[in-house]
Design brief:
2 domains, Serine Threonine Protein Phosphatase 5, Tetratricopeptide repeat, 13 helices, mainly alpha
């Protein structure tokens, strides 16, 4: 009788059915694979509370802050999420400098911030975004997300006019080395090989070809992107972008 009572007491104290960190992590990664950003964020917030020194928990929490932050209604709310993403990514890198996901998450969060940042901050962030994406690829040569970020980086820099480059050199310490359309195409192609059904990779390649004046290739890749499954809220917007690009590229 005493043993039964003691067992019942232990259940009450420890919590019946409480998930282990391993179970929570598996659940969080399932949400990541299924693009469930809100649910994934909640899981990794719990994991960071349980172990704030675990690089994997920190890096994935940062990733979800950047992804779910995009869905917030106001720019101010979005920036709160992105800035938290930066902080968590830096903690992940400090906990384990060789964690590729930490470097990728840092580049992703900084890229999100750059969408609403001023010119000086954009240039400063751009240098770090390139370094972090390249470091992620050094540590994990199959990181599609890092190739995607590098592709966008190279396209953005390649699109600078001579006047813009002169201004950046004069006021912000210069454009980071590199930045060609050929590099952008190569990086997007690598991302597509690694994640062939991810619509955004193919759309960004189509956009790059359009920016290069290669309308036939732009239409081809925009059409390929439309053949990908719609899996996220971002995909719905990308679908519209693809349709508009096809019209422009005729």
């Amino acid at each position: 009788m005493k043993k039964i009572f003691f067992a019942a007491l232990m259940i009450l104290v420890t919590g019946a059915g409480a998930q282990t960190k391993e179970e929570l992590y598996a659940q969080g990664m399932k949400h990541k694979a299924e693009f469930n950003y809100k649910e994934g964020l909640a899981v990794f917030q719990k994991l960071v509370q349980l172990d704030s020194s675990n690089a994997e928990y920190l890096a994935n929490a940062s990733y979800f802050y950047s992804r779910y932050g995009r869905q917030q209604a106001t720019e101010a709310e979005q920036m709160k999420y992105y800035k938290t993403g930066v902080q968590l990514a830096r903690k992940a890198i400090k906990a384990d400098e060789k964690n590729a996901e930490g470097h990728y998450a840092h580049a992703l969060a900084l890229g999100r911030i750059n969408e609403n940042a001023g010119s000086k901050q954009k240039i400063a962030n751009a240098k770090m975004i390139k370094l972090e994406a390249e470091r992620a690829i050094q540590l994990n040569s199959k990181h599609a997300g890092a190739y995607h970020i590098l592709g966008r980086w190279h396209r953005t820099v390649a699109s600078f006019s001579a006047i813009e480059r002169t201004m950046i050199n004069a006021f912000f310490g210069g454009v980071p080395p590199g930045g060609t359309f050929a590099d952008a195409v190569a990086n997007f192609q690598k991302a597509i090989v690694l994640e062939p059904k991810y619509m955004l990779h193919q759309f960004e390649l189509a956009q790059t070809y359009y920016d290069m004046g290669k309308k036939t290739e732009a239409r081809l890749w925009a059409q390929k992107a439309l053949e990908c499954p719609l899996r996220t809220e971002d995909d719905k917007k990308t679908k519209i972008d693809c349709e508009e690009l096809i019209k422009k590229a005729k």
